[in-house]
Amino acid sequence: MFQPSTKHKLERIMTHTGVSRMIFACFLWMNHTRLIQVILAVFFIIIAGSSFILSYVNLTAAGLQAGFPENLAWMWPLCIDSFISMGAVFVLQSNLNKEPSWQGWGVMISFTLVSGVFNIVHSPPDLWSQFAHVIPPVAQCFSLEILMIRIKRDLMKTPQLTEEPECASPDTDTISPEKVQKVREWLTVNPGGTNEQARKALGLGWSTVRDCRTYLQSTGQLTGLTE
């Protein structure tokens, strides 16, 4: 008698089960990178959502205990936990713009501590209960930071269509002799300076500084100076 193989059994199950067929099709459609991203997204939703809800319940109760009106007490947890999310987004934006991110970190850490303290205050007096109540705000902070790291890496991999190739020749029609002279004088004083530093110091656009620098190097006026 013919014994169906495991493959045939799986195919039969997939044929008669719509949900299984859909899941199987999704796995076939996704490569390993996309699959990992989906798994990370699912875990983030579970962790961040659960942490926010647990912290929200404790903070709402703490707000009522502190004397906030019952119809407004739900706003108080949002004021605290929303700052954690805002700090994470600020850190991401600062990193992408290559700017100092200590302000965002300060907001994240400060309001995580505030949320943790009020969660502890509204917990039973024993140590284990207090430890359990402080986990939600900390987990929310870490999950947001992991998400921001993932978003940052994905954005860094995305090609910027607005940027011109490095080998593009400068458009001499858009740079004036005055701008060229300003860039030349600055680079003479700061031979190791980057285009970004020159842009901030001179108040010029990044592409203008780049074109002026390329022009000066092509004409031999910056021999020996590299970015």
Short structural summary:
It contains nine helices and no strands.
Helical content, roughly? over 70%
- How does the major sheet shape up? none
Per DSSP, what share of the residues sits in E-state strands of 2 or more residues?
under 5%
* Helix-strand string: HHHHHHHHH
What is the gyration radius calculated from CA atoms?
28 Å
Helix count?
9
Question: What oligomeric state is this?
Answer: single chain
Would you tell me the structural class of the helices and strands?
mainly alpha
Distance between the termini: 77 Å
How many domains? 2
Low-confidence stretches: 160-173
- Average pLDDT works out at 77
Shape: elongated
Total count of strands: 0
Give me some keywords for this one.
mainly alpha; 9 helices; 227 residues; elongated
Description:
The chain is mainly alpha-helical. It folds into two domains: 32-157; 164-227, Arc Repressor Mutant, subunit A. It is 73% helix and 0% strand. The protein has helices spanning 6-16, 18-29, 32-66, 75-96, 102-121, 127-157, 177-189, 195-202, 206-218. Helix 4 packs parallel to helix 6 (127-157), helix 7 (177-189) packs across helix 9 (206-218) and helix 8 (195-202) crosses helix 9. The longest helix has 35 residues, at 32-66. The termini are far apart. Residues 160-173 have low confidence and may be disordered.
Topology:
Elements: H1 6-16, H2 18-29, H3 32-66, H4 75-96, H5 102-121, H6 127-157, H7 177-189, H8 195-202, H9 206-218
